Amino acid sequence: MASKTLVIIGNGLAANRVLEQLGETHPFNAIHVLSDEPVAHYNRIMLSPLLAGETTLNTITPHTEAWYQRKLIAVYLNQNVAHIDTDRQQVICGSGNRFAYDALIFATGSRSFIPEIPGSESTNVVGFRSLHDVKTILERLAEIQHATVIGAGLLGVEAATGLRSHGIQVTLLHRNPVLMNRQLDATASALLKKELLNRGIDVRTGCSPLELCCDDAPARQINGIIFEQTDHHIRQHQNTDLVVFATGIIANKELADNAGIHCGSGIQVDALMRTSHPHIYALGECCEFNGNTYGLVAPIWEQASVLAQYLRHYYQPCQQSPVNTAEPLPRYQEQHHLTKLKVSGVDIHSLGQFEPDSSTEVLQLLDEHAGIYKKILLRDDRIVGALCVGDATDSHWYYELMQQGDSVTALRPTLLFGKAYC
Fold first, then answer.
1. What is the pLDDT of residues 303-327, one digit of tens each?
2. How far is CA 124 from the centre of its chain?
3. Can you spell out the DSSP letters for 366-377?
4. Co-location of 122 and 181 in the same domain
5. What is the domain extent for residue 357?
6. Is residue 271 located within the same domain as residue 212?
7. Residues 6+ apart with CB under 8 A from 80
8. In a 10 Å sphere around its CB, with 0-12 CB exposed, 13-18 middle and 19+ buried, how is residue 341 labelled?
9. What are the tens digits of pLDDT across the range 15-26?
10. Do 185 and 360 contact (CB within 8 A), yes or no?
11. What pTM did the predictor assign?
């Protein structure tokens, strides 16, 4: 029986989830994981608690060496991949190491988008995507009196609260008038803003950075930021010792692109996570499916499950020909997901559609004094979205009802009050 080798480029959440889903009875004689980081896999979801000092690297490192050995997995750290030879089916690293593959997975993730504005190349300008980013921030804590976080999406809000927990003065700038505008409406944003202000974070919405002001030292340290109130075109200056960009992500697709694999915004895949080249797959933040790229965990989990089942089926020793795609293998499908955030002890959950249109009906409950806001969107008496702020006890139940697509006609009078009342 011929041996089969799986090579995975990347050691983040997507790669780890595929390894977990493959289990110990996978069809490969060896799995090689190539990581460009110097440490074992860690849970990137926990970067914010790590920055805040609420957890440790050991705590967020889920697997032991024995776990990898049982699954025939070898992890190679500090391995920057330089080239993919698709003809010979080899991965070539900058170190000179070569890894032959029968199956290759791109799980290269993404990097922070840092706009090209004056000063953005300075040494005290960072993203917020990796352990390296967190270490860079923590190493500078003693010299930071004020930090500016640009972008109030999920990661930006978490970065701001993590920095503030160290006693640092923080300004949070966001281009949109609504915080976390991909998940929240104006009412939910106002409640979130109130919580951030109560925590001592200076929140500025409708603002765009124009320039990072640098000193004349060779190290090119920024010492201030100029931003514009876009509605009124008013320029303001803020002294600052650190700038964290959380303004979006860029898929790490260059390695695949250079190998001739079809790429758009990310590495293009089909519903089985296959790329344009045979035996090469991609998932997670580096991939693109039907024009969509990914920054949330839930779709990546689903992609990993689809890919793991496909690999087990396709590479079984008895499988002599490509899998018949007419067989009922699970395929990846786009769907709504539940987004969670906890700020200063307040839960914020968002799922599905959160802004109404002409075909939707809105059920809403707001208690500003208690900081509780619930909003449910219905279409034909079926849930198509919900927001829960301050009380997210029933968000998973709403999510289940939305996924099932059942009519909630009988539940309407008490739906906002939760499952217990219904």
1. 999 999 999 999 987 644 444 445 6
2. 23
3. EETTTTEEEEEE
4. yes
5. 338-417
6. no
7. 36, 93, 94, 95
8. buried
9. 999 999 999 999
10. no
11. 0.90
